# Entry
Amino acid sequence: MSTLTNRLYRLRSRPEGEVTAENLEWLEETVPELREGQALIRTHYLSVDPTNRVWMSAMRSYIPPVELDAVMRGAGVGQVVESRRDDLPVGSFVVGLTGWQDYCIADSASDDMSFTVLPDPLPAPLPAFVGVLGHTGISAYLGVEFAAPGPGETFFVSAAAGAVGSIAGQLAKRRGARVVGIAGGAEKCRYVVEEFGFDACIDRHSDDWKKQLDDATPDGIDIDFENVGGEIMDHVLSRLNFGARITLCGLVSEYNEYNGGSGPRGIRNVSQLLMQRASLRGFIVFDHVDRYGDIIGQLSQDLAGGVLHSDETVVDGLEQARQTLNRSLAGENKGKVVVKVVPS
Ligand code: NDP
# Structure
């Protein structure tokens, strides 16, 4: 009989706006005994991602919504502590959909439960594997690769101080582009320019942000790495150059309106795509799993060589996960945000 206690969140109702304690119930349950083909993973770090909010809604997405009463889905990095699976040996560190919980059972019969064993010794600290060397860094890499910025081009990135944007801007800069970002607040803008080497960063909270954006992109915008949508994207569309490329990575400004509120504002300035013969490519990182190994290898080298910089905000305690997500969606965090689940 297992005596391990699992602290976890179950999705009880779909949020309207911010995620409440009623939407996500915080519980303690006993970890069940392992069956053949299962391994028990102790979550060390949980990734807090804007897309968690999308998964809580019922909208059609690239993955089914989290079912009501199910454990909240989430990406994490952890250690195998018990195993009845040859491919997940005890002691190994793994990355995958651990869920918002202390312990996760990785069942070989479930697609949702595919885990990647990390190299031993670890080439980087554990949180990096859900950040710059995980799905967010890989998203930045892919989005930049699709848009292929070149010398002399202007590359614009929204949510520039965030996990994806901060890496995307650095990668575009290394390809010779002039990189301009937008972020929330003067301090974040300073951080984007000084820590990540952007050429300029606009404070989206300033009254004249549109004028500042125009002034910072005197030659127009050749590439938009789009993370937020809404009013910012609409203004960026009005700055597109002929033949511009848009990498549509995310629409975070809308997520709190999925499943409630008045519904998302949406993108209105679509005519500019037509007028400027622009192309827009949406992508989902999970479609490119076959490339993860190569991309992680490249990003690890860049990190080790000091030509790529990443920053993590570590929030202590799984019980902080819900509010951490709300704070991220409200723009109160910067860099990659992870929740430390395992006690020190
Ligand atoms: P972060 O949590 O690091 O950053 C999110 C930031 O978005 C906030 O800090 C805030 O920054 C900004 N933001 C929030 N609300 C608004 C708003 N209303 N208007 C403008 N900006 C807002 O997120 P990530 O870097 O992890 O993700 C960035 C985007 O990439 C998201 O849309 C996410 O869904 C997407 N994504 C897509 C993937 C894919 O496969 N396509 C994979 C991973 C992420 P600030 O206040 O500084 O502007």
User: Anything to note?
Assistant: The longest strand covers residues 38-47. The chain has a mean pLDDT of 95.
